[in-house]
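Same chain as my last thread, 255 residues:
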Amino acid sequence: MSQEPLRFRAPDIKFRVLIVGRANAGKTSILKRVCETTESPKIYRNRNGIREEIHLDPTTERGDHNIEDELVFTNHEGYVFHDSCGFEAGNEDELRLVQNFVREKANAPRLQDRLHTIWFVVLIHRYCIPMENDRPVLDMKFFGSLCPDKNVPVIAVFTKFDQFKRDIKIKMRTSSGWTANLTLNDQVEKIFEDQYWNVIKDHSPRCVRLEGMHKGKSCDALITETANALSSEVVTLMLLAVQRGHVEMSVRIAL
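reply #2:
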């Protein structure tokens, strides 16, 4: 009988995220912050069943952009990201492309090949949603339609919320017609609710409002909200497994 010790092979865990939003919404910054890196991701494309690295600008909005491409950061290979452009001028062709991708990935046979969550980012993005946008309704028009089967959680990610608050503070000082009896925080919440939350609230969304991204603040709130949105304990554990270096947060979520 062989006396060689048994070798444990760690499972190849992949947590797959689709990030949706226009160019300059802050998508790349979010991914880098989540993976704690300043490097750009490697991009992989499946060609005839073979996974190959390709060399593109990961921020490219059109051209050779492909939602099937996998974006992977070398220091955090447990995450696999897919990038979709925003829906300019209510582009329903782009919506159908996203819906088909979500439906296919949500039903992939292997758990590591499935899509586990969607980050919807809007320049105010589970899209990224930047909060300096003057036309939020257009950016968020298809929020409730991204996942027709409702089997993948969608997180609304509002970026530049700190700039949004500063802009309102300036307008309160210089413009008439503002509700005089409201504090700055009350005015911010009122405008956010009227212009953003009311657009998506009927879809029972989860949302995160990010601040201080330019100062290097973490995206722990996004990870926590994502974990809370997952319906499967197995998938939640997958997220915690790939989220290295955040022991305190992982313990808090697990409890």
